[in-house]
Each structure stands twice: as C-alpha cells, then as structure tokens.
Design a protein that fits this description.
The chain is of the alpha/beta class and about 250 residues long.
C-alpha cells in the first residue's frame, strides 16, 4: 500500500530538500545510462527538485522531468534554468508510447504502485530502453550514521533496497545492481535540516518533531566523531537497479 500522505509531504519543504539532500554521483548516473549515446531522451520520474535531472543534463542528455507535487515542480523549475517539469506520476505518465530511451527514478521508486508503474514505464520506453531507479542511502556501517537513522526513523539502507525492489516484472529483463560510495559535507545545522526534509519528520506531530530534534542535537554534542566539529562528512552508498525493457 502506497502512503500518499508521506509521498506528497515534501512540497512544503522543497527549498530545504534541494539544499540539504545529497547529489547523485556521476559514476552512478553513467552506469545507469551505460550504452546510451548522448543526447538520449531520459525521463526523470518523480523528479522532485531536480537533483537527478541536473546530474543527467550535465552528461549531455535531454531530460524530461515528471513530478506530481506542484511545490517540488516549482523548485525544480527555479533551480534548473531552461527546464520545465511536467505534472504526472509513475502510474500516469504524460508521454506517448515509446517516447523515452531511459527512465530514471531518484529516491522515489518506493512510493510507486509498482504493478501499475511498471506497465506505464514499459509503455513509454522504446524496446531495449533502460529503467533504473537510484537511491542515495546512508552508510549505516558507520555507527553514528546508524544511530541517526534510528533516531529519525529514516528509511531504506543499501541492503534492503536490493532485497525489496530488484524485480520489475515481466516487461523487463533481470535487474543488474550497481553500488557506489560518496560523501557529502554538512554543518551540524545542515544535518538537522537534512532530517527535517524526511517524510517521517514532515508528517510527525510537533511533539515527535521536538523529540527527534532533541535526540539529534544530543548525538551531535556527545558522539566522539561529531562533538565539537564544525562540519560532518556524511557517507552514502548509492544503489542503482538497472534493467532493459524486453
């Protein structure tokens, strides 16, 4: 069951989402689009504020961002000159049959009604086209990162992404998995800002928000790898699940 309350909670925090969420590493995007000659026509589905769109544009491809939340679309348009996001969803893409060489999904696939989305994505892909969801997941092998995830009720890690989502149904070839590592540098206040862009915090009660904020401040003040530091290196594992349309 898709929780649309959580899935559509991000628009109110669109500017902070764009500011604090990590980029997608170039190596991961190149791997996702391997075999496609630029400029390919790439749909960024669930495009959010355009972080993945901008990464794919930088590789020389033509990008069509599709996003259901009007607040996120407005932020994407403001942050990505020359690009206009289309209103639409994974279950209802505003594109003709066979229109795309690739469909990428950054950080949004787990919100989809998967059976309906797979059929719709297959419809807009040309035969042999690429479908590749991408996740930036925190590297919870680092103990303070695991504790932050526990405090803030954060979602999937790299292992659970592969275990839960590596099957796109009969329209697609078997899924290949790519994993990449990178870090993003944040101040302690930025780290709090990052957590406040997560769906749990955005939909929580004022009391629960305060509890999360208080526990995170305590972690930042007391953990030996964090206390007294002006900046924090937050490690990520980026997971790409890649398949071709049959």
């Amino acid at each position: 069951m898709v929780d649309h309350t959580h899935a559509l909670s991000f628009g109110a925090a669109a500017a902070d989402y764009d500011r604090f969420r990590p980029r997608y590493p170039e190596a991961a995007l190149r791997w996702a689009l391997d075999g496609l000659t630029a400029p390919a026509r790439v749909v960024d589905l669930g495009a959010g504020t355009g972080k993945l769109t901008r990464g794919v544009l930088a590789l020389g491809h033509d990008v069509v961002p599709v996003e259901p939340d009007p607040g996120m679309r407005a932020q994407l348009d403001a942050a990505t000159p020359g690009t206009t996001a289309l209103a639409g969803s994974a279950e209802g893409l505003p594109l003709p049959d066979g229109d795309a060489d690739a469909v990428l999904v950054g950080q949004a696939y787990h919100w989809f009604d998967r059976e309906r989305a797979h059929a719709e994505i297959a419809r807009v892909l040309r035969p042999g086209g690429t479908f590749a969801p991408v996740w930036n997941t925190r590297d919870e092998r680092v103990d303070w990162v695991a504790e932050m995830s526990r405090i803030a009720h954060l979602g999937d890690n790299a292992g659970s992404v592969v275990d839960r989502y590596a099957d796109f149904g009969p329209a697609f070839e078997p899924v290949e998995v790519g994993e990449f590592t990178h870090t993003t540098t944040l101040t302690p206040d930025d780290l709090l800002g990052l957590v406040r862009t997560r769906s749990y915090w955005l939909t929580a009660s004022a009391e629960d928000r305060e509890r999360v904020d208080r526990a995170l401040r305590d972690l930042l003040a007391t953990h030996p790898q964090l206390a007294g530091r002006e900046t924090v290196a937050l490690p990520y594992q980026t997971v790409v699940l890649r398949s071709r349309r049959r």
